[in-house]
């Protein structure tokens, strides 16, 4: 497994917003978005698996300290930052997180750099739904939603919300109807994404593939990693980006 020091660090700016990025690999592009509390060693390990499969991976650093292991206090501080930042919409209904525009621009820039039919976008937990919102950009053709948890499911309405404004919702449905599939991953008894998966099935139909693992764990690709979930993501990226 690599460390964050083994990745090429840079920054990307769009519409006046700048975040650092970490890049490694060759081949078609994939944007891997970290979960709470940040780019932990487990997130890096998953990104390594994507690189080893033959992809160029870019990890944006949206919050947290890259490479820092997860702790309870570190996670709490990241949750607080995510809730108060104007870039994210942790509780808002029917609203697209502003940071997804920056992420879509990053995906478009990556596509221009590596070529190919398009790029993949893998979101996890806090960023899980961001991969769906990134479909507003034509460069994104392989969205992966790993346990999408925003808006936080503190009410039934929020548990079913996809984190999209009405206009973006329409745009995403149009892209899916035109042939773009969506992959979702979750544990069967994880309440963070239960209602959201029901909505995804109903609205996306056969274009939505759900990989649901037994149990009440949460992080399908990192802390509670399951090989079935990782293989599903890698195969999906292969099918869409090769």
UniProtKB/TrEMBL annotation:
Keywords: Hydrolase. Residues 27-144 form the Dienelactone hydrolase domain. The keyword GTP-binding does not apply. InterPro entries: AB_hydrolase_fold, Dienelactn_hydro, Dienelactone_hydrolase-like. GO terms for molecular function: hydrolase activity. Pfam families: DLH. The keyword Hydrolase applies. PANTHER family: ALPHA_BETA-HYDROLASES SUPERFAMILY PROTEIN, CARBOXYMETHYLENEBUTENOLIDASE-RELATED. This is Dienelactone hydrolase. It comes from Aeromicrobium tamlense.
């Amino acid at each position: 497994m690599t460390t964050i020091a083994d990745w090429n660090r840079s920054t990307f700016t769009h519409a006046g917003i700048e975040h650092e990025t970490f890049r490694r690999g060759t081949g078609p592009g994939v944007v891997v978005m970290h979960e709470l509390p940040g780019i932990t060693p487990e997130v890096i390990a998953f990104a390594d698996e994507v690189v080893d499969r033959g992809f160029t991976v870019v990890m944006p650093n949206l919050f947290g300290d890259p490479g820092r292991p997860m702790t309870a206090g570190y996670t709490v501080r990241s949750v607080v930052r995510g809730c108060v930042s104007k870039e994210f919409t942790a509780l808002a209904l029917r609203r697209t997180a502003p940071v997804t525009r920056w992420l879509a621009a990053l995906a478009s820039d990556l596509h221009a750099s590596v070529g190919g039919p398009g790029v993949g976008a893998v979101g996890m937990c806090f960023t899980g739904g961001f991969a769906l919102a990134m479909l507003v950009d034509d460069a994104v053709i392989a969205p992966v939603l790993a346990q999408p948890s925003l808006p936080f499911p503190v009410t039934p309405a929020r548990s079913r919300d996809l984190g999209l404004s009405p206009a973006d919702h329409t745009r995403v449905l149009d892209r899916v109807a035109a042939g773009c599939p969506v992959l979702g991953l979750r544990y069967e008894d994880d309440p963070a994404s239960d209602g959201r998966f029901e909505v995804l099935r109903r609205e996306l139909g056969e274009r939505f593939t759900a990989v649901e693992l037994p149990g009440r764990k949460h992080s399908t690709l990192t802390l509670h990693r399951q090989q079935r979930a990782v293989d599903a993501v890698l195969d999906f990226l292969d099918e869409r980006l090769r």
